[in-house]
Amino acid sequence: MVEALYKCAKCGKEFKMDLAITREIRCPYCGAKIIYKPRPKVARRIKAI
Ligand SMILES: [Zn+2]
C-alpha cells in the first residue's frame, strides 16, 4: 500500500490516495485534477518491533 495524503488545489480538502490502485489522481470531492503533492514526513522514524 502506497497511501499518501494529498490536497486539492481547488477546494482545499485533503484526502488519501493509494497510488498502487489509482493511476489518475483526482479530488474525490470536486473532481479537480490539480492536486498538491503531499508533504513527506520523513523525519519520523518508526521502530519495527
Ligand atoms: Zn477538490
UniProtKB/TrEMBL annotation:
A cellular component annotation (GO) from this entry: cytoplasm
Requisite cofactors: Zn(2+)
GO aspect biological process, one term: DNA-templated transcription
Gene3D superfamilies: RNA polymerase ii, chain L
Reactions it catalyzes: RNA(n) + a ribonucleoside 5'-triphosphate = RNA(n+1) + diphosphate
EC number, as in UniProt: 2.7.7.6
Cofactor binding note of this UniProt entry: Binds 1 zinc ion.
The protein's assembly and partners: Part of the RNA polymerase complex.
Chain's role: DNA-dependent RNA polymerase (RNAP) catalyzes the transcription of DNA into RNA using the four ribonucleoside triphosphates as substrates.
Name of the molecule in the record: DNA-directed RNA polymerase subunit Rpo12
